[in-house]
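Recall that a protein's primary structure is simply its ordered list of amino acids. Everything else, from secondary elements to tertiary packing, is in principle encoded there. The following example makes that idea concrete.
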Amino acid sequence: MSHCSLSFVRKLATKAKSPKKSSSSTTLANLPSGWEALNYFKDGKPPELKVDAEDKEYPEWLFSLKSRRATLEDLVERVNKFYAQGGVDAVAENIPWSELRRMFRLANIRRIRRENKEKAEEF
């Protein structure tokens, strides 16, 4: 029977190369500001500013951005109102699924925060 001799040599890791600095440094002075920052095409121009434009020239969803979103209490109140009028069917007919989903999400967030607060007070 022959014996194999194995030898292990531990080597140190090679030193990592430092990243090369680019010739064009990114500073605040080089970044576009204001309206020009909306240009996301490589060779494009920024969109034209419409100072005296009418509302019909803008998409409908743009005006919904300013409206206040319903709170959990508002959503629960609406659901309870329609539920009292006609049960689950009335809720399903009158309240969009997106608002119901938001109500469940907000209620879940509130429950998690309450439980976390209770756990923190135990310590």
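Residues 97-122 form the longest helix (26 residues). The mean pLDDT is 79.
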